[in-house]
Amino acid sequence: MDSCNANGKTIPAGDRHSGTRRFQRAGRLRWHLALLALLPLLLFACDLIPPTRLVQVEVTRLVTPVAAQDSAELTRPAVVTATPESGSGPNATNVADLNPPGVDPPASNGATESNIYTEIVDTGPLTLDPVLARDQASMTIVRNVMETLVYPHPYDPGGYAALLATGWRISNNGRTYTFSVRRGVRFSDGSMLTSADVAYSLQRFLLASPSGGPQHLLLEPVLGPDATDIVAGIDDGAYVGDRAALLANTTASTLLTVCQQLQSAIVPNDGAGTLTIHLAQPWGPFLGLMSQTWTSVLDREWAVRRGAWDGSCETWQNWYALSNGESALATAILGTGPYILDYWAPGAEYVLVANDDYWRLDSAMWEGGPSGMPDLRAVRVQQISDANMRWELLERGEVATAMLSTAGVLLAERQAGASCDWQSRECQPTASPNAPLRRISNIPLWGRQALFFNFAIPTGENDFLGSGQLDGDGIPPEFFHDEHVRKAFAYCLDDGAFVDAGLDGSGILPQGLVPPFIRRITAEPSDYPFDLQRCGVELSLAWDGALPGAGFRLQLPFESGDLAQQAVAVLLQNSLRAVNPAYRVEIVGLPRPLYQQALNERRPPLALLQWTPALPDAYYWVAPAFSGEIAAYHRLPPELDAPAQNLLAQDRAGSDPAARDTIYNELSRFRYDAVPFILLPHAAATVYQQRWVDNWLFNAADPLPYYYAYSREGD
Question: Would you list the DSSP string of 349-366?
């Protein structure tokens, strides 16, 4: 049965799928563009990133050690094996056929051809330790095997569904969160979940502080704004990231105090079934932190038996600055989630099987969401570097979905019989309604980009300024201090043309300061429409009316080969010239090193910059535009910077959703009136999957596959 009825509308899940499992349909995502595949590597920095539609980063694969594993510790242990021979293809009709040569087959758990889900990716997981999992593939395993206290709600932007927490209370001052830990939950080895397990997992995460990890995001609210690392307060941070130096130069009492301070902030109460977290400061985005995979809950006793931190404040420093190669949990995983990892062949594939002892019975995760045992009895994820092979497997119908190259997308488009929107979940038949694939379009990638004005362009050997005067042959350093100039540039930038030229036609027009799929902000002003007449009017009002007669000239550099940057430059050049030939924008293509140098010196008058939000909370989608390296580039004057920082500080310290919405309305109005930057369209992805995939989920606030919400036709 297809997802579209005769009228091209999505058939309600309840009309197609009977029994205790009922789903709301949402867009299923496998990222086909490089930016989101690299999301976990970029999550935790808001550094100034030069142009870019997609960030191309070479990822060095870590080789995890193959550790011996006590099979008695897991109901079904994760078997880390050598790479299987290439002859083991994806045509298996029973999960027992999926094992690589020399490995005992995983338990079938009732898996048959009709309820096995296979997908193909181009890169595989690097670790199973939630503290270290920062690549998408590793985080996907963690999300499906382990669980967090809360989960980003897929249909309530800005909200969170209870997972291992049944609820939570926030103190009046916003500094104490008390979570009620769900009772009766067991790990897949049969051991019972306790509040102490949750506390241990969070404490281990913060004390481990691996290099480049996200720990600072949680340390800041828990220990204070200066806690960028668990040892940042020792000798002015002299030992950050250096375990040997920490052990050699720090007294035992100092180390003990660090751990005890953390344990006094994260307090379990097994008798009451609660976990209380005392914050050093109110933190509005705190629930977003508790929803991330790195806060997934470990069985403390199991972890200690394997060689992880023993939970003692006398020993934590021995696990500080933890690396994947020395993690006792890099090749083993145990959780309370709907799936169990049966085996993992690094560089080749892994298989998840349904957890038949999963704690969730008839209670749905959200209204109309999944409940009970997983419909998919097994999930097989294969890693294949050959793009042609990935497409061939999808074309033959042997896999549910595959990560496709640009050429593969063109081929898949010819085989798409239905076109679905990820957000509305409405489908329409294509010109080939009997074709086997389903296209899911306009899935926003996890990131933002904007055109930033330079409010203090440096003079002195800066050709980008021209003469540096308002004499028709240049612009003054304070050119963009005039809000009419900024509004004019906003009106002169054609968003639709940018999507076509800079994003290959796959993009979503700006929908306000906070994307509606992250948080619905009422009455948020729309963005400036493309309007050359209004662009001209604004320029005629700027600089006391001097521009129409005098004109201006500036140079706009871009990194050679970057389509998005080049598109912005060309569109502004053409629009401003159409308004008045005296408005001259000269485009200068630079090799990456020269462009990066110019950007670091803050010399370009404008720059297309992007940031990757760290969390689904709206704060992390907005704040980077006013802070860090981006703020250092565009140098907002005090009269613009102060109100923005004040509103962001209020939001950060607020915990009431209604009050935070009010703040975002004010911040959105400020952004619209002052135009400190021009928001650009979101890059978007298109996904192709077999139409026999019945239920599918795309959660815009958590772009990781969550297989519990999936099913195949007939299961």
Answer: EEEEEE-TT-S--S--SS
